[in-house]
Amino acid sequence: MQTDDLVNHACAYRALAEVMLAKRDIKRAKLYAQKALAYFEKAGDGVGATELKGLMAQIK
C-alpha cells in the first residue's frame, strides 16, 4: 500500500476481509482480518481493534 497512515491500512484490510467473507473465501478473510487487526493495534486504535475482533468472530 502507498500510504503511511496505519488506520487507512487497517480499514483497507478490513474491507478486503469483509469482501472475502461475503465471497465465502474464509482463508483470505482470516488473513486480511489478521492484518487489519495488527494495523489497528499498531495505530493504537482500540475501537477499530474491538470492532475488527467482532468481524473475526464471524469468520469461522
Chart the SSEs and their pairings:
Layout: H1 6-22, H2 26-43, H3 46-58
Helix pairs in contact: 1-2, 2-3
Task: Describe the overall structure.
This is Tetratricopeptide repeat protein. By secondary structure, this protein is mainly α. It has helices spanning 6-22, 26-43, 46-58. α1 packs antiparallel against α2 and α2 (26-43) packs antiparallel against α3. The chain is globular and about 30 Å long.
Structural class by secondary-structure content: mainly alpha
Number of helices: 3
Identify low-pLDDT runs: none
* Spatial gap, N to C terminus: 27 Å
User: What does the overall shape look like?
Assistant: globular
Kindly estimate the percentage of residues that lie in beta strands according to DSSP: under 5%
Mean pLDDT, all residues: 93
Helix content: over 70%
Count all strands and give the number.
0
Key descriptive features of the protein:
Tetratricopeptide repeat protein, mainly alpha, TPR-like_helical_dom_sf
Short description:
This is Tetratricopeptide repeat protein. With 60 residues, this protein is mainly alpha-helical. The chain has helices at 6-22, 26-43, 46-58.
